[in-house]
Design a protein that fits this description.
Blueprint lengths: L1 H8 L16 H8 L7 E4 L4 E2 L20 H12 L2 E4 L4 H14 L2 H4 L14 E23 L2 E20 L5 E25 L2 E12 L2 H22 L14 H14 L12
Parallel strand pairs: 1-3, 1-4, 2-4
Antiparallel strand pairs: 4-5, 5-6, 6-7
Helix pairs in contact: 2-6, 3-6, 6-7
């Protein structure tokens, strides 16, 4: 009994590990494969709100949201990793302004006889990225199978959830929505169980249970959906000549064509460069 209880309480080795960088999703790798732009676009992100209204189901706390509240940070990271955008701080803009006031206060030229400090002006954005996490649907698919024979049992179950993200690029000069993209990512969970319940001899009962479950972290699903949306915004913006490639021949690169082909299959949109740039 002591041996069995010790095995049951022992955590797998992979649970206890050193902190490391978050693994890259396939979409994150595609961000690094994007061809170079003619010029980086200065972009502002004021927030990416949780618009799902979903909370974790019992027995978890009813005050814990089903999806991450840090989606804006994920979006800024994806925009920067793409190499197409230069994000400027807007979500914590008040902190930046406070630090600039502190610099002016402690570096008083009248006290030290130094020349006046000329802080560079804050960089204005050309495009604002708006949007939100618009849906988190649970149990979109469920299933399982099991069998029992002579006290020996085995079963497996799975569940599929889905998270959806919408992003739109807004031109700050006119307020025109340049592009709007919606992406979805599944969240997969599964559980396997097995057990033995039988008499091995008179008045001697053997009962053994084992099992494990694997749950895909919802925040990684949100991150992947955001990265996919950024890739579609870049690819479709290139197609519509809203922003330009450093070398127009790079339009034929697989990473651009694959995302345009995905959009074309759903909407029928062309996968060739538009003849005329937008004014």
């Amino acid at each position: 009994m002591l041996l069995l209880s010790g095995c049951a309480l022992q955590a797998p080795q992979e649970v206890s590990s050193q902190a490391k960088l978050t693994p890259l999703s396939p979409h994150a790798r595609d961000l690094y494969k994007l061809p170079l732009p003619k010029g980086k676009i200065i972009v502002a992100v004021y927030g990416l709100r949780d618009q799902t209204g979903q909370y974790k189901s019992l027995p978890d706390s009813s005050f814990s949201t089903a999806v991450t509240q840090g989606a804006a940070s994920m979006l800024v990271s994806a925009l920067r990793d793409s190499g197409w955008f230069t994000p400027v701080e807007r979500e914590g803009l008040q902190n930046v302004l406070t630090e600039r006031r502190i610099i002016r206060a402690i570096e008083n030229p009248l006290d030290k006889g130094n020349p006046a400090i000329n802080l560079p002006p804050l960089m204005p954005a050309q495009v604002i990225i708006e949007g939100g996490i618009v849906a988190y649907e649970t149990n979109t698919q469920t299933g399982g199978a099991g069998a029992k024979y002579l006290g020996v049992s085995a079963s497996g179950e799975y569940r599929v959830d889905q998270v959806s993200v919408t992003l739109r690029a807004v031109d700050i000069r006119s307020g025109q929505i340049l592009n709007s993209v919606s992406t979805s990512k599944t969240v997969f969970s599964r559980k396997l169980q097995s057990g033995v319940f039988r008499y091995v001899s008179f008045q001697k009962l053997l009962e053994v249970e084992a099992g494990f479950s694997l749950n895909e972290p919802p925040q990684l699903a949100v991150k992947a959906a955001i990265e996919a949306a950024v890739l579609h915004i870049v690819a479709q913006g290139i197609r519509d000549r809203q922003w330009a490639l450093a070398d127009e021949a790079d339009f034929k690169q697989p990473v651009i064509q694959s995302y345009l082909r995905e959009a074309s299959e759903l909407t029928g949109a062309p996968i060739v460069l538009n003849a005329k740039a937008l004014q």
